[in-house]
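Before we proceed, please read the two lines closing this message. Let me know whether the structure tokens fit the sequence:

…
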Amino acid sequence: MLEWATSPLGQRVPIHIAWFLIWVAVIAGLLFLIGHAIYVRYWAKQKEFASEPPATEIRELPARIPRHTLPARLFHWIMAAAMFVLLFTAFLPKVGVQFNWVTYHWIAGSVLTVSILFHMIHATFCMDFWSIWPDRADLEDAGRRCRRFFGKSAALPGKFAKYPLENKLYHGVVMLTGLAVIASGICMMFRVRTIFFPRDPYLFSDMTWGLMYVLHGLAGVGLITLTMVHVYFAIRPEKLPITASMVVGSMSREFYLKEHDPRRWVVEGLSGRSTADGD
């Protein structure tokens, strides 16, 4: 799992992850994609939800439902571009594609860091911060779906809020993994020459540097699998309206009513509450 070396002081320290974990991450992603596609094709049942919203609420809805503001969409695509550059520059040299990757890597990492900081501020003060976090209704509906999946008696779950529980959990995992990459990456920038601060390879002890490289590597290979899963769901036919909304900013009223509960995701302009927005 790890590669080790002996420091000048004779201490055995980790230096980075074992690079076969790159292929473990890729294979894990492929297995998930294949397994999910087979499940949806042969075993998944038609979605069933509890009561529909009142007809008066439906008539008030616009033809296009706003989902993502322009700043949220710009953040998403800038973050996505930075993430792909980071993954390619980090792992292509480890599988035999050699090029001068260090400069591109820290520049992409800087872009990712700035975009994440912007998103944290924007989500806290300009959007519905809690819309991406699981709530009681999510957990109750998840329990109902699980019981029905195993053939047990349970009430029908309600329709989703802006984000289903699965999206919220995925967001949490990506957030923790991304923060681990960013925090360790910022420290590791002291090992190379950048425009931000002087190079200082003696800032930490050999053991601390080694553990930092291990954390950075583990989070990095984790992001390979997470990115594969994200792209897979983005191109699934039933998810294309959601993907399109990250481009144009809105989705059709028909899809909104099919998947979402207007009482849990209130459309902007129809009440005093603003729409929940986020990535």
